[in-house]
Amino acid sequence: MHIALGVRSSDFPIDDFLDAPGKTDAVISVAADPAQTTTTHLAFSGNPKRRGGEWRIRDQYSHRHPAWTSSTGFPATYDPKNPPFILIFKVGKSFHARFAFEKQLLALNASRRPIGMPAANTGIGIAPTALLATFKVPDPSRFDAFLSQADIISVEDFDPKNISDGRKRIIAAVVRRLGQQAFRRKLVSAYAGQCAMTQCNTLWVLEAAHISPYRGLKTNTIANGLLLRADVHTLFDLALISVDPKKLIVKASRLLRGSQYEALNGRGLRLPAKSSLHPSAAALEYHFSQFHG
């Protein structure tokens, strides 16, 4: 069974939507639930010779995506009076699958639906924020936001003649990475000079990580910080690594599977000896809400 998505046009740039411009096939990872715990690949194929470039979702007969199964309420038989609509949302760089019955869509206020839905059976459009909330599609993660911004951030041309300036930039970058010194010194003392996740004790690579984003001196408190190894700090800032605020264990994103960082998943967070120096539960909950699981 294949599901037709429609033909590429200026109003329906499906290959751009799938990050596959100029291609005839694409495979994407699509989450089936708001927590992104059930994620499965979807295969798409485009036929440039058919109707000007038709795209379809493949393999939905024997490899049905978990968002469109009987366990989610997806119908086993087609009812032309109330057909199901397959919905694929793209938020940042992440994809999310849902479905809705036609009557459910018609019951929504018109401002909650993309223009043309449900009259049009195929196509894409800008999904209003209210529609995302209706289907519990999560906001962009920090990692999605990073990828979106990284695509447009310009990179300075390298000038090999300006070695002196290059040295200054390197030194300044190291100082920034070490964090605000007073904040870092407090965390080094609280965590006895060891990374809270890896137990690395090489001070030169240990950094002061903010749990909730830095917003002035008031956020430079031990309760809003963790002492982390530099590479883990980067992944923590991108929310590819986080901390379960209830169990106080490290969580590593599925995007890190197969890497050395996968071993951190499930590891207990190393806490300061004094409970008064432990990280804020509220700050950990905020960061975990941004986790790209």
Query: Considering DSSP H and I runs of 4 or more, what fraction of the residues is helical?
Result: 10-25%
Number of strands: 10
Radius of gyration: 24 Å
Would you list the SSEs in sequence order as H and E?
EHEEEEEHHHHHEEHEEH
Tell me about this structure:
- With 293 residues, the chain is an alpha+beta fold.
- It folds into two domains: 3-140, no CATH class; 163-289, no CATH class.
- Helix content is 23%, strand content 19%.
- It has helices spanning 14-17, 102-107, 129-134, 142-150, 163-178, 181-190, 230-237, 281-289, and strands at residues 3-7, 25-31, 39-47, 54-57, 84-91, 94-101, 206-210, 225-229, 241-243, 250-252.
- The strands form three sheets. It has a six-stranded mixed β-sheet with strand order 1-4-3-2-6-5. The chain has a two-stranded antiparallel ribbon with strand order 7-8.
- The longest helix has 16 residues, at 163-178.
- The relative contact order is 0.09.
